[in-house]
Design goal:
179 residues; mainly alpha; Arp2/3 complex 21 kDa subunit ARPC3; globular
């Protein structure tokens, strides 16, 4: 029950990925909702449960794409591990920093997945042809993630108790016990 919200988010992302993704594409570039779930797992959960959620979202992404299974799962898990190690102990309050990490994380997963699925020939410019769609997916997905995060923070600040664990703001009861 601890990660029930992430389960709902994964389900919504899977439905959006399988039904709406092609309709909201701009010039052939569509966001990856399941890679946003990977980012949310890394940001919200600490330790190995985040890696399990990243692997699950990557596997679901693999199931929706033609080709070999496990490529997105492996890329998402490795990138989630690296990002989690990099941001451990650092403040995640800066919206700009979160948006940059989101963009770079999705770009890395999309690019690694593209390179593994369609390896470029040595000495060709195929890598640039793989990079441009990955940049588009990362930018589009990061923009959607930024909008969702901004709406979440706005709702959390507007409505007392929204987004907190027990429905109330934490009390300052420990301040009365300290001299």
């Amino acid at each position: 029950m601890k990660n029930f919200g992430l389960l709902i988010l994964t389900y919504v992302a899977l439905v959006l990925e399988s039904s709406v993704r092609t309709e909201i594409a701009v010039k052939g570039i569509a966001p990856s909702f399941l890679l946003l779930v990977v980012f949310a797992a890394v940001l919200l959960i600490d330790g190995w449960p985040a890696l399990i959620w990243a692997a699950l979202a990557g596997l679901l992404s693999d199931c929706l794409q033609p080709g070999q299974l496990g490529i997105d799962m492996m890329c998402a898990t490795v990138v989630a591990y690296v990002v989690q190690r990099a941001i451990r102990g650092r403040s995640t309050e800066s919206t700009f920093a979160i948006a940059c990490v989101n963009f770079l994380m999705i770009l890395t997963i999309a690019m690694a997945s593209s390179v593994v699925r369609h390896p470029p020939a040595p000495g060709s410019d195929d890598l640039m042809q793989l990079l441009m769609p990955a940049l588009g997916v990362a930018a589009y997905s990061a923009m959607l993630g930024l909008v969702c995060m901004t709406l979440w923070r706005f709702a959390r600040n507007l409505l007392p108790g929204f987004g907190s664990r027990h429905g109330t703001r934490p009390s300052r009861r420990w301040n009365t016990l300290t001299p």
